[in-house]
Amino acid sequence: MVQKETAQAQSQRTLDAVQEMFETEGAITSREQLEQILEETLLPPNPRVRTGSLPNGLQYTILPNAVPAGRFEAHLQIMAGSADETEEQQGMAHMCEHVSYMGSRKRERLFGTSSQTNAQTGTHSAQRFLCSGVTHYLHRALTATLYS
Q1: In the chain, at which residue ranges do the beta strands (DSSP E only) sit?
Q2: For the chain, N or C: smaller number of CB within 10 Å?
Q3: 5 pLDDT exceeds 60?
């Protein structure tokens, strides 16, 4: 308990310092300076979070959430995006999102199951998102998200 209070106190001190710098004209003069301050900010860990790595190297994080009951969400973040493309490859990351996920037959099997699913490609990563109020479809949803 002492360690958690220490992390919370340190986080609050850092946030207070950032707020003071914003209020003082010219104190934060660059994005790099702000990022350096925020990198030093420790947030207290959530004791319910479970993390691990599968034999294939896929890292995962699980956070149980009891409310609303029977609902699940799955997010997959791929650390590659449009910034990883060469000039000749522009648009390929976005196209891969559509070919590998949005047009996937496995994703289509979720239609009519009250599931919501989407994907997006950004500069540095691509994400897949799925949620459903019916845990009966959890295996089908994870299969569509991970193996499309």
Answers
A1: 50-53, 59-62, 72-78, 115-121, 126-132
A2: N
A3: no
Of 20-24, 30-34, 90-94, the poorest mean pLDDT is in 20-24
Is domain 50-146 given the CATH code 3.30.70.380 in the classification?
no
Please calculate the CA angle 76-86-95 and round it to the nearest 5 degrees.
45
Q: How far apart are CA 79 and CA 141, in angstroms?
A: 21
Residue length of the chain? 148
Q: Give the residue extent of every domain in the chain.
A: 2-39, 50-146
Sign, Cα dihedral of 79, 82, 87, 90:
positive
Identify the three-state secondary structure at position 134: coil
Model confidence pTM above 0.85? no
Is residue 110 within 8 Å of residue 117, measured between CB atoms?
yes
Calculate the CA 10 to chain-centre distance.
24
